[in-house]
Specification:
This protein is mainly alpha-helical. The chain has one domain (about 5-295). The protein is about 80% helix and about 0% strand. It contains 12 helices and no strands. The protein has helices at about 5-30, 35-55, 65-90, 95-100, 105-115, 125-145, 155-175, 185-205, 215-245, 245-250, 250-265, 275-295. Helix 3 runs antiparallel to helix 7 (about 155-175) and helix 11 runs antiparallel to helix 12 (about 275-295). The longest helix has 28 residues, at about 215-245. The N and C termini lie far apart (about 45 Å).
């Protein structure tokens, strides 16, 4: 059977949604056997080396001094503080909740720009989306407020929100300071540099164990995160945005958290109620409205 380009594009979108949605659950499996910062460090190191080796083979030029500084700053905000802290947080909070918080970053971008950059050209749709998103996540937290939580739950929420705020700041910095580099070559450097910083971060905070005692399930999880969560998902994502309308290709951002919530409820028996599902849908609807308003702007 020969599939059309359109069919392959829809299949790629499906793969992207499942791959990136499951990474939250797989991360939770991985951190059961090793500290989250160390898991993130190993993952970024392996993925970064794969990308850099590929572009070295393609004889890509080394970054300039100015580009290298930009890579350092962006890797700090987008990878070290974001991926490192959110992976750490997964040990203490449900994977579905972490995925839902992760989807909130457009809201934080708008809030940061309004408060600190005095951006005023947002529309009624932007503010409607903000209010809707906040109402949705509030419903999710309200549903969870009256149940016992494991030790470190509040700390996990702090880590996750800090990571997403860091991602939002990094997004703003990159949007305002663009340097001419192949984005995938830049990603390779960002991941590699971040892995070195994460190593220092993990060791200095005593979140590091001997590699020899890391259990097999953690290594399998890391392999999944690198191969499926990074390589396969990115290839599928690129194919989908190449052959599908942007609005359709971007649906992965709203499906990923739902995938994480549903799979997390099965694998880890994470709480899943009608209020949590409703709150999640309302939250993602708010994020969609904010994204839509930004695209129109």
């Amino acid at each position: 059977m020969v599939f059309s380009i359109k069919q392959k594009a829809y299949a790629s979108l499906f793969v992207t949604c499942i791959a990136w949605g499951t990474t939250w659950v797989v991360s939770k499996i991985a951190v059961q056997g090793a500290p989250g910062l160390q898991v993130s460090c190993i993952r970024q190191f392996l993925a970064g080396c794969l990308l850099l080796l590929f572009f070295t083979f393609k004889k890509e030029k080394l970054p300039t001094r100015q580009q290298f500084v930009w890579l350092l700053v962006s890797s700090l905000f987008l990878v070290v503080f974001n991926s490192g802290l959110t992976t750490w947080s997964i040990k203490y909070i449900p994977s579905g909740l972490a995925a839902l918080i992760g989807a909130l970053y457009p809201l934080f971008v708008v809030i940061i720009e309004m408060l600190f950059l005095k951006t005023r050209n947002y529309t009624l749709l932007t503010f409607t989306g903000l209010i809707t998103g906040i109402a949705g996540i509030s419903l999710v937290f309200y549903e969870n407020a009256f149940h016992d939580h494991p030790a470190g739950y509040t700390f996990g929420l702090f880590l996750c929100f800090t990571g997403i705020i860091s991602w939002s700041i990094g997004t703003i910095l990159i949007a305002r300071n663009k340097y001419q580099m192949n984005p995938y070559y830049a990603l390779g450097w960002q991941l590699f540099l971040a892995s070195l910083m994460l190593y220092v971060f993990a060791v200095s905070t005593d979140n590091f164990i001997p590699v020899s005692i890391i259990p097999a399930k953690t290594w399998i999880g890391i392999a999944y995160l690198v191969i499926v969560g990074s390589v396969i998902a990115f290839v599928a994502f690129i194919y989908s945005i190449k052959y599908l309308p942007p609005a359709l290709a971007s649906l992965y951002a709203y499906i990923n958290p739902i995938v994480a919530i549903l799979i997390g409820s099965v694998v880890f028996n994470e709480r899943l109620t009608l209020n949590i599902l409703t709150g999640s849908v309302i939250t993602l609807a708010g994020v969609y409205m904010v994204n839509l308003s930004l695209k129109k702007k």
